[in-house]
Protein: Xanthine dehydrogenase family protein subunit M
Organism: Neobacillus rhizophilus
Amino acid sequence: MPEKITAYRFDYLDETLSQLNKEDCAIVAGGTDVMVLHKSGRGVPPKIPKPVVFIDHLSELKRVYQKDKDLHIGSCSTYGELLENPLIPIALKNAIKTIAAPAIRNRGTLGGNICNASPAGDTLPLLYVYNAKLLLRSVNGDRVVAISDFIQAPRRIGRNHNEILAEIILPSVLEEGSHVVFEKIGNRNADAIAKVSFAGYIRISNERIDDIRFAFGAVGPTMVRSIDIEKKLLGKPFPLSETDIDSIVADFDQIIRPIDDQRSTAVYRKTVALNLLRYFLNTSQYQPN
Ligand SMILES: Cc1cc2nc3c(=O)[nH]c(=O)nc-3n(C[C@H](O)[C@H](O)[C@H](O)COP(=O)(O)OP(=O)(O)OC[C@H]3O[C@@H](n4cnc5c(N)ncnc54)[C@H](O)[C@@H]3O)c2cc1C
């Protein structure tokens, strides 16, 4: 006889937040990470050690809208829904297309990818270079945190047990003029966990670099980004000189420290990460997107 667990599925976000305030529950959005994390044997229901609260049906968590130049994405928007939404930037759609197969993309959510805090989460490098902010909601109100502060370590996030990630905010993402890329190296095009991933963001003004950002996935416990290194390139003439490119690649060589695991080796990961960076910096024609 399978063990019974308590499960909640409220009609409104307010009721869900009240329950979370009374009781520490396991939040389930699409469930594609939760079910794997708690799986038991074949044919045996997963063992989740807390009461479960479902949130993926809540319309308050599925809105995608523009406010000034910022894009607000409801945390429970599935990948499938985001792919169909004209407000979602092409680079983010490109990253989503590399995630799993359509069945998972119809269940998995952007909020789930963030709160799962995997070093190989495919949307994370881009969310870092977009300077994403996260709106957390509880019975006490809202607070907004930078994604780089929220994700603390593999599977560790700065969420209080009574909070839900309600929205992902991409500041100024709807402003024109920047060029953003996402690259993922895995065993095959879809349905593969990243060995290495990379996101680059650049904005040029009067043939000089106005803004530039990079983030690497799967080469450290969380995304690797360095604002100090990025600052060195601000104001530099574009295209960059070989000396500048070599110096930035050497800087990242110092701070990227991948590990060997079942998916890849540290040496391969580092080589590919630095190659992706060099390729991005070497590009002399950027298409704003
Ligand atoms: C076969 C398969 C292939 C996959 N391939 C990829 C891949 O290629 N790339 C990739 O990045 N991932 C992949 N994943 C992982 C997974 O699909 C994604 O991480 C997905 O985005 C998780 O979303 P979810 O809604 O299913 O999260 P859930 O499993 O529901 O939740 C994940 C975690 O986040 C918490 N959570 C979810 N939403 C919220 C919220 N709004 N507020 C607070 N906490 C919340 C949950 O409590 C849980 O701890 C794969 C998974 C499977 C099973």
The chain has a mean pLDDT of 95. The two ends are 55 Å apart (CA to CA).
